[in-house]
Amino acid sequence: MSPIHTDEAPPVSGGHPLDNPARASLLGPHAHFAEGLGDVLRYPADVSPFVALPDRPDEQTWRDVATLLGPGAVVPVAGLQGSPPAHWETVLNGAGVQLVDDGVAAAPDSEAVRLGPADVPEMLALVAHAQPGPFLPRTVEMGDYLGIRRGGELVAMAGERLHPPGWTEISAVCTAESHRGQGLATRLVLAVAHGIRARGETPFMHAAAGNTNAVRLYQSLGFRLRRQVTFLGVRVPTDEPALAPESVG
């Protein structure tokens, strides 16, 4: 596959909110979710797996990660500048892209219904089937989620995840296999984007760089490639030195 070219320079420390969107979210609109130790922030384990590190983590940062998540935990981070400790196992290293609204034809959808806590079992089942990315029992609390039902069955959904100031990520875009090819995911992306725009914010998305069909679709809808991102997952060693539990706050 040929490399994906973006039109912006690499992120710099202290720069754009989308350079470190999980951290910008947990320091901003999602601060009520934040659990932390030192400079490390995370969402509750049943909301989102994302861990937010400072732009340039040091040795103390990684010690705090080990204490906050515990031995053996997998730490998912995106766009990390620098490297994790050499003795931490890398369990995921994937190329991704970040896309931003650049003229998306956002519009409400008359068939879309708002999803909430009562819909979570169906949402989890759809995600398990379609595998769009992480979705946990309380992920629905991160923003607005919309779905389309056919015969009472939830067959497609999309919603909001990370929320840096002024921006909202569209995520969990998925359709049941039996209902693909009908444009349901596209309609929901445009409907979620409409809600984001109505709040005076700007939609953005992430996608795996290798999922070229999805990337092309999002570009055709009016999203622009902003930058390349590395999705990294590293495992805390079982023997990693950590702070005493009472130090965690």
Description:
- There is one protein chain.
- This protein is of the alpha+beta class and 249 residues long.
- It is built from five helices and eleven strands, in the order αβββαβββαβββαβαβ.
- Strands 4-11-5-10-9-8-7-6 form an eight-stranded mixed sheet. A three-stranded antiparallel sheet has the order 1-2-3.
- The longest helix is centred in the C-terminal third of the chain and has 15 residues, at 184-198.
- The radius of gyration is 18 Å and the shape is globular.
- The termini are far apart.
- The model is unreliable at 1-13 and 244-249 (pLDDT under 50).
How would the blueprint of this fold be written?
Elements: H1 21-26, E1 35-37, E2 40-42, E3 51-52, H2 59-69, E4 74-78, E5 89-101, E6 113-115, H3 120-130, E7 145-150, E8 153-160, E9 167-175, H4 184-198, E10 202-208, H5 212-221, E11 223-235
